[in-house]
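Methods — Computational structure assignment.
A single polypeptide chain was analysed. Its primary sequence is given first, followed by the predicted tertiary structure written as structure tokens.
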Amino acid sequence: MDVGDLDVKICEGSEAVHVALAGEIDLATAPQLDATLQEIPRTKKIRIDLTLVTFLDAHALALFARADRDGHAGSGRVELVGVGPLARKLLTITGLDSLISTPG
């Protein structure tokens, strides 16, 4: 699925739904990504791969926090993987690294 300057690929596994992102997550692309994430059943963990994300802003952080909060109702917690240095710094500064799993 192509959302503006963001490419989204979804692969459902037995324990988690893997969401691979490539491009930018910002004001223009966050609403469409949010709608895509809302379509994923909250019965599994959602593993969001940021390896190919070239830019993210506060809209992305809010989206990740909301998706994780929504997952508390089921077992659909969010895990961010492939978190680069800039994204990790933003997650740390905002305190989201203590709320959302970011292994590695």
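Note: The two ends are 27 Å apart (CA to CA).
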